[in-house]
Amino acid sequence: PSGLELRAEIEGDSLNLEAHSPKVEVKAVTYHQMKIWKEGDLTFVRFLLDL
């Protein structure tokens, strides 16, 4: 539907090329500590990505 908008905030470790390959892909979205809540007309989702 029109009028929908997605905004995101991303947190994580700093990129360390010795420890992380820039070609790493997301393995899965984890349900651990997943949180979904509404505030007024807005819906928020917090989730972790397993890399």
Category from helices, strands and their pairing: mainly beta
* Share of residues in strands: 35-45%
Count helical runs.
0
What order do the strands of the largest sheet run in, or round the barrel if closed?
1-2
**How many β-strand stretches?**
2
The stretches of 5 or more residues where confidence is low (pLDDT under 50) are none
Please characterize this protein's 3D structure.
The chain is mostly beta strands. It has a domain of 28 residues.
Q: Which features does this protein show?
A:
mainly beta; 51 residues; single chain; elongated
Summarize the helices and strands and which ones pair or pack.
Layout: E1 28-39, E2 42-50
Antiparallel strand pairs: 1-2
